[in-house]
Here is the input.
Amino acid sequence: MSQSIITTLRQIGNGSLVTSMENNLQKLVQAVDESGKAGKLTIVIDVKKATKGNAMNIKGQTKLTAPSTEHHESLMFATEEGELVTENPKQQKLDLNVVNANKGEIKNVNEAR
Here is the structure.
């Protein structure tokens, strides 16, 4: 009778592979739940014949590909000194003033004729 794959997985690395699988699956589920985007947990089992006899070297590993997070970006400008600023240093500044609407009489163009 053959041994189940679950039993074999539990024996790889004295159980550390299964622990890694459980931890990474939990992280993946949380990341997918938070982001709403898909992720992936890959489990790789390498089997290599040992040098003598019928012994096999079994190596397992997990790879977590969590969903990408949102990217945050800003448009910034480089100065000659190598710094980043939010206003374009090469653009001319305009001396703008706030217009107070309460000054003077407001006329309707159609009524002035």
The longest strand covers residues 40-49. The mean pLDDT is 86. Residues 24 and 64 are 6 Å apart (CA to CA).
